[in-house]
Amino acid sequence: MPDLELDQVAKRYGDTVALAGVSFDVRAGELFGFVGSNGAGKTTAMRIALGVLAADSGEVRFGGEPITARMRTRIGYMPEERGLYPKMKVLDQLVYLAELHGLSTSEAHRSAENWISRLGLGERRLDEVQKLSLGNQQRVQLAAALVHDPAVLVLDEPFSGLDPIAVDVMSAVLKEKAASGVPVVFSSHQLDLVERLCDRIGIIRSGRMVATGSVDELTANAASRLVVRAPGAEPGWAVDLDGVRVLSDEPGKTVLELEPGTDDQPVLNAALATGPVHEFHHERPSLTELFRTTVSGGDR
């Protein structure tokens, strides 16, 4: 499968800059997490990739070629807001959408029934969408994105409103599609889920990409967090150490932040001077912590 690329995509609404030269790629067989605060530009970027919005400048490519209207029929899109016909039955709706993407009636029925079964909607297949719970509507929305066997998946907040079981089902489906070679990009505010699922992550702030890479790559240059368990240590034992900031200092446990390049041996020596040290290890910042640091400049 080819890659999906956004290259210097820009969009303005009057004086408001929605996107300012946004560039990133979603590789074949990759789960790419697209994260940012509300209003950062995620949905705008996705809609431009789909051709729903026109960019002021820049280009969207698939397989190295500019995306055409025909290529867009190969994209599976799941919008954050519900995009379904509320009074239409689940099965009828999925068959109709599959046929719109070029499947024959028999192919559309087979695919619709397959995804209805895979997503646990068998008992609701003949129900109107408006009679389903929000979680089941979300499952139908995912089925609608998958029913035509897309070459690319673009999902805007696909996990919103789902219970843990539905999250597991959807996660398994997305991983399966990526494993088959499909580029999968999704936005989400559930950063623990993004960290667990995604191969790479892109962080957008005020219409600009501020970080792209795996969590390991993005945290490689971050300040190191050090956990020290020294039962005999008095509060404040690490306050005067160079290049060290005390994040928490509880009886017997201290969490420190070391500036990049700071040697941890003086910290260990200072801890040992208080008595036995039962734990001394570095912790990688979580994606949530990285996100807070990266977007601290705020969004429009």
How is this fold's topology laid out?
Blueprint: E1 4-13, E2 16-26, E3 31-35, H1 42-50, E4 57-62, E5 65-66, H2 69-72, E6 75-78, H3 90-100, H4 105-118, H5 134-146, E7 152-156, H6 164-179, E8 184-187, H7 191-197, E9 200-205, E10 208-213, H8 215-219, E11 224-229, E12 244-250, E13 253-258, H9 265-272, E14 279-283, H10 287-294
Parallel strand pairs: 3-8, 3-9, 6-7, 7-8
Antiparallel strand pairs: 1-2, 1-4, 4-5, 9-10, 11-13, 11-14, 12-13
Protein name: ATP-binding cassette domain-containing protein
Keywords: ATP-binding, Nucleotide-binding, Transport
InterPro entries: AAA+_ATPase, ABC_transporter-like_ATP-bd, ABC_transporter-like_CS, DrrA1/2-like_C, P-loop_NTPase
Uncertain regions spanning at least 5 consecutive residues: none
Structural class: alpha/beta
Order of helices and strands: EEEHEEHEHHHEHEHEEHEEEHEH
Tally of individual domains: 2
CATH class of the largest domain: Alpha Beta
Helix count, per DSSP? 10
Helix content: 25-40%
Strand content: 25-35%
Assigned CATH architecture of the largest domain: 3-Layer(aba) Sandwich
Mean pLDDT: 91
Q: Would you give an account of this structure?
A:
The structure is a single chain. A hairpin with a 2-residue loop joins strand 1 and strand 2. Helix 3 (90-100) packs across helix 4 (105-118). The protein has 300 residues and is α/β, with parallel strands linked by helices. The longest helix has 16 residues, at 164-179. Helix content is 32%, strand content 28%. The strands form 3 sheets. The chain has a 6-stranded mixed β-sheet with strand order 6-7-8-3-9-10, sandwiched between helices. The chain contains 10 helices and 14 strands. It has 2 domains: 4-218, 3-Layer(aba) Sandwich (Rossmann fold); 223-284, Alpha-Beta Plaits (2-Layer Sandwich), CATH 3.30.70. The protein has helices at residues 42-50, 69-72, 90-100, 105-118, 134-146, 164-179, 191-197, 215-219, 265-272, 287-294; strands at 4-13, 16-26, 31-35, 57-62, 65-66, 75-78, 152-156, 184-187, 200-205, 208-213, 224-229, 244-250, 253-258, 279-283. This is ATP-binding cassette domain-containing protein. Keywords: ATP-binding, Nucleotide-binding, Transport. It comes from Amycolatopsis dongchuanensis.
